[in-house]
């Protein structure tokens, strides 16, 4: 039996090494709350989401122990060495009532600024086919650097997109695609890559470019500004 709504797997088992903080970045403060709390609150506010499966680093002692947000269940499970391993673990830990053909969302804990209306557009359009992902067409010129840090060549920009999250796929198809990529020794950088390798054609759904992934220390100031806006983005 499927559920009348979407669960979201939230990979949050990373170490945040590129930030260089004294703890994993998902547990660093932004605008008075933990980074992860902003992200989970944003996700739980979306009416189409019915539950969150947060994937934590094994032995994570910093998890604040949330079990419910906006009257929606929050569950946790241990993740793996790579993001894709954590996503697969999250899929496996979802409640039994979610069957293989149900769509699920995957959204990085490190992306606290996702807009609710962008999520609605993804859910409303990508569910008609193989699933899809939020992203944005590349708007800057793209350079390939040589070993000396110089521009070796300019990459073609047409039909190039930046991939964001959430990404939305059927639980069974995504699990199988992730397992197959792992079996082939391929570390996929997002769920769509695994689906592409499995022969699917994920739909690209354009979303706001302020859906930033907090990756370095410099990203915290921008995230703080974006989160400080009067109303959660997408409800303005
Ligand atoms: N083994 C991993 C690695 C990453 N992630 C999660 O995947 C998201 C995107 O990954 P990234 O931004 O690279 O986070 P980190 O891996 O923590 O960053 P870094 O590479 O700087 O250590 C983050 O929410 C991170 O917690 C995860 O669940 N499991
Ligand atoms: C999934 C993702 O956020 C899409 O852009 C990105 O691939 C994550 O990369 P990371 O190196 O694991 O942060």
From TrEMBL:
The UniProt entry's sequence similarity note says: Belongs to the IspD/TarI cytidylyltransferase family. IspD subfamily.
Q: Keywords assigned by UniProt?
A: Isoprene biosynthesis, Nucleotidyltransferase, Transferase
This protein's gene is called ispD
An example molecular function term from Gene Ontology annotations: 2-C-methyl-D-erythritol 4-phosphate cytidylyltransferase activity
This enzyme catalyses: 2-C-methyl-D-erythritol 4-phosphate + CTP + H(+) = 4-CDP-2-C-methyl-D-erythritol + diphosphate
Q: What is this protein called?
A: 2-C-methyl-D-erythritol 4-phosphate cytidylyltransferase
Question: What EC number(s) would the UniProt record show?
Answer: 2.7.7.60
What function does the entry list? Answer: Catalyzes the formation of 4-diphosphocytidyl-2-C-methyl-D-erythritol from CTP and 2-C-methyl-D-erythritol 4-phosphate (MEP).
Q: Show the Gene3D superfamilies listed in the entry.
A: Spore Coat Polysaccharide Biosynthesis Protein SpsA, Chain A
Species source reads: Dyella lutea
């Amino acid at each position: 039996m499927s559920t009348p709504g979407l669960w979201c797997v939230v990979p949050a088992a990373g170490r945040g090494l590129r930030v260089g903080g004294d703890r994993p970045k998902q547990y660093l403060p932004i605008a008075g709350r933990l980074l992860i709390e902003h992200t989970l609150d944003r996700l739980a506010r979306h009416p189409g989401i019915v539950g969150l499966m947060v994937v934590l680093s094994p032995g994570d002692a910093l998890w604040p122990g949330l079990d419910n947000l906006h009257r929606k269940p929050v569950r946790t499970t241990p993740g793996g060495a790579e993001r894709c391993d954590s996503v697969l673990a999250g899929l496996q830990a979802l409640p039994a009532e979610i069957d293989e053909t149900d769509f699920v969302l995957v959204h990085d804990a490190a992306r606290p600024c996702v807009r609710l209306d962008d999520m609605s557009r993804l859910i409303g359009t990508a569910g008609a086919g193989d699933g899809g992902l939020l992203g944005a067409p590349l708007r800057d010129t793209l350079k390939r650097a040589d070993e000396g840090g110089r521009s070796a060549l300019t990459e073609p920009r047409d039909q190039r997109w930046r991939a964001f999250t959430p990404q939305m796929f059927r639980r069974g198809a995504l699990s199988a695609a992730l397992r197959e990529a792992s079996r082939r020794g391929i570390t996929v950088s997002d769920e769509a890559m695994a689906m592409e390798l499995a022969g699917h054609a994920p739909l690209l759904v354009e979303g706001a470019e302020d859906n930033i992934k907090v990756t370095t220390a410099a990203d915290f100031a921008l995230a703080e500004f974006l989160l400080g806006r009067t109303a959660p983005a997408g409800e303005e």
